[in-house]
Amino acid sequence: MAFKYVILGGGVAAGYAAREFANQGVKPGELAIISKEAVAPYERPALSKAYLFPEGISLILGTEIVKADLASKTLISAAGETYKYQTLIIATGSTVIRLTDFGVQGADAKNIFYLREIDEADELVEAIKAKKNGKAVVVGGGYIGLELSAALRINNFDVSMVTDVKLKDGRVLEADIVVVGVGGKPLTTLFKGQIEEEKGGIKTDSFFKTSVPDVYAVGDVATFPMKLYDEIRRVEHVDHARKSAEQAVKAIFASEHGKSISEYDYLPYFYSRAFDLSWQFYGDNVGETVLFGDSKPTSPTHKFGSYWIKDGKVVGAFLESGTPEENKAIAKVARVQPPVESLDQLATEGLTFAIGAEADNDGIELLLTQVKGKDITELIAAGREKLASVPAGGGAVAVSASASSGGGGAAAPAAAESKKEEKVESDGAYNLSSSLILAGPEEFDVFLWLLRLPSSD
Ligand SMILES: Cc1cc2nc3c(=O)[nH]c(=O)nc-3n(C[C@H](O)[C@H](O)[C@H](O)COP(=O)(O)OP(=O)(O)OC[C@H]3O[C@@H](n4cnc5c(N)ncnc54)[C@H](O)[C@@H]3O)c2cc1C
């Protein structure tokens, strides 16, 4: 069988890629998804059957690809069928790390469960039903271990969470069920030696293009440039699986039409929940931590969080029980990385810091992201318009429409030093390649001054 586009994998990234193909107007018969799972792509975190699959696309299920020859653009299944493609999206995700991988004694016992695919979830549910009120050991203290422990507690299991089933002190825990959540490893074996790899994944650019022409990699398997941190990274989270898939498909269609799209500029985002707690995390969890809020479980108003501070700037934020507005505010903080003078003050301010920072920067930040890549004259016009709509005294900036060239005067370079900005000249147009935090109207002048722009007034 031959297809114009093939998505290899039937998980989150595959589902979102298929949806984006449909948005971009893929024609019937052009696209196939090949997945070893027996069901259409679904949202893995919920492990619900919320299928993501649009119509008009060939779904080749229960089909494991065992050989990939990227040079001849051919995939071969376990049953010996051959699939040809013009463009391939690798979305094979990760596989769970099994206790057998560590050579753990008794690792092949029947009551040991893993959770990656829907049939594994079904098997675990059956075991939970069969061993009512039993004892469970959850191996692994990451978010999956935590979520599983909560689910087992809700089902009246007596749960112990450990990092080793036979504990290092020699004790042995009894268990009716052992659930293992010790992490995953990207499924790249099919492509070994044919494609460039880095940090355990398939290396891509900001459009998820790999080192092999017409081959893209998305989701858990992709090691991609994380622009915000100027680093290449691999991310095993659903938000990135969705966004990377959309980016790759947009890039494919853009290149077919001789167009270009913006680089992927990902802000790490992760969410999880256990019992009646739910939390969101944005940014990077590096540097010093500052805890804030009320974390007493018995408190009716409990809401707590944490900031991560590196090089005097907030680089990550976590919040439990946040409202959508509060979560938006911590996301903004992680994106713009405002400076922090005192960690004690930050702890006292807590969530107010994020909300305040959002109000301060809302107008300008929006402006920069909206006009990125456009001609500078449009940037200024959009900036003026945006600033004009900010209510005076509303906690945000209100600038007079008289931004003049050189208006920042001698103060400009000093003010600029503490900010992140860069200008790139290309074909007579200017592009901002990173974000700029503007704390006040005069900084708009500074910004224009930096770009050596004449005022239109
Ligand atoms: C139980 C669980 C809970 C999670 N909860 C969260 C959460 O709360 N928040 C969060 O951000 N992230 C969560 N994650 C992580 C998130 O689900 C993954 O990051 C995401 O699924 C990655 O998407 P993907 O499409 O790259 O890979 P996957 O969704 O793993 O899909 C890979 C697909 O490729 C198929 N495949 C692989 N090899 C082959 C082959 N050779 N032939 C054919 N098909 C193949 C697989 O069968 C699968 O269908 C969770 C993961 C699990 C397992």
What report would you give on this structure?
The chain has 457 residues and is of the alpha/beta class. It has four domains: 2-94 and 185-256, FAD/NAD(P)-binding domain, CATH 3.50.50; 99-182, FAD/NAD(P)-binding domain, CATH 3.50.50; 269-349, FAD/NAD-linked reductase, C-terminal dimerisation domain (Enolase-like, domain 1); 360-450, no CATH class. Helices cover 28% and strands 25% of the residues. It is built from ten helices and 24 strands. The protein has helices at 12-24, 118-130, 143-154, 238-256, 324-336, 343-349, 351-371, 376-388, 411-417, 441-450, and strands spanning 2-8, 31-34, 58-60, 65-69, 74-77, 82-90, 94-96, 112-114, 135-139, 158-162, 177-180, 184-186, 197-198, 201-203, 215-217, 222-226, 231-234, 269-274, 277-283, 288-294, 303-310, 313-320, 423-426, 429-432. The strands form six sheets. Strands 1, 2, 3, 4, 5, 6 and 15 form a seven-stranded mixed sheet that branches. It has a five-stranded antiparallel sheet with strand order 18-19-22-21-20. Helix 1 (12-24) runs parallel beside helix 4 (238-256) and helix 7 crosses helix 8 (376-388). The chain is globular and about 60 Å long. Mean pLDDT is 76; it is low at 45-52, 362-374, 390-442 and 449-457. The structure holds flavin-adenine dinucleotide (FAD). Residues 9-14, 34-37, 44-45, 47, 64-65, 91-94, 115-116, 144, 187, 190, 219-220, 236-239, 241, 270-272 line the site of flavin-adenine dinucleotide. This is monodehydroascorbate reductase (NADH). Residues 3-162 form the FAD/NAD(P)-binding domain.
